[in-house]
Amino acid sequence: MHRRVLIAIVCGVAYFGATSFAQEQRKPPKKPDQPFMVYVFTEGLANDEVDMPKVTKEVAKRIAKKKKWLKVVDDRESADMLVEVLTHAVHEQHRRELDMRVNDRGTGKNYYDNNWITERHRIQTRVTLPSGAQKLFTGADERERGGSMKGAASHLAKQLEEYCKENYWDLVSS
């Protein structure tokens, strides 16, 4: 009787171990055989406040720096992924900080009013994946001081690279 129970337990453990191992997702390679070809473009959205060709050029430049996983190409037909730059929004915010400092003699306190304008940049894109599915990516640079379009474009490129790493096997099979 004990022998049958022991065999059943060993078989159960082996079964659950094999199924969990089979269901475990394969890890992506550290460097793929070939980087994903990316075409960056913008259509329409002529805006007096935003220079969309400049934003598109900056996004392409930042994606091109991710050489292991992404390569920017000049023609749409040879691309695996299409990155359409939709918007670039800049939100300005007035910041004010009241600071207290001790004077030179150490006896009195002086108050200083610090004022500055901070910019928060957001670049939104629509990425067409190799399967034909589309996904929205937003790059943001919302630092307290020194937010920039370059920072938002870098964040966007990093997001795209991470997505390619996490979904490598699905992207390659499509």
Strand residues, percent = 25-35%
User: Mean pLDDT, nearest integer?
Assistant: 82
Question: How many alpha or pi helices?
Answer: 4
Strand order of the largest sheet: 2-1-3-4-5
What spatial form do the alpha-carbon principal axes imply? flat
How much helical structure, as a percent, in the residues?
Answer: 25-40%
Structural class by sheet pairing and helices: alpha/beta
**Rg of Cα set:** 26 Å
Would you count the extended β strands for me?
A: 5
- Characterize the largest beta sheet: strand count, sense, and whether it forms a barrel: 5 strands, mixed
Poorly predicted ranges: none
Order of helices and strands: HEHEEEEHH
- The N- and C-terminal alpha carbons lie at a distance of 52 Å
Secondary-structure blueprint of this entry?
Elements: H1 2-23, E1 36-41, H2 52-64, E2 70-72, E3 81-102, E4 109-128, E5 134-141, H3 149-166, H4 168-173
Parallel strand pairs: 1-2, 1-3
Antiparallel strand pairs: 3-4, 4-5
Helix pairs in contact: 2-3
What characteristics describe this protein?
174 residues; alpha/beta; 5-stranded mixed β-sheet; 4 helices; 5 strands; 34% helix; flat
Overview of the structural elements:
The protein has helices at 2-23, 52-64, 149-166, 168-173, and strands at residues 36-41, 70-72, 81-102, 109-128, 134-141. It contains 4 helices and 5 strands. Strands 2-1-3-4-5 form a 5-stranded mixed β-sheet. The chain is an alpha/beta fold.
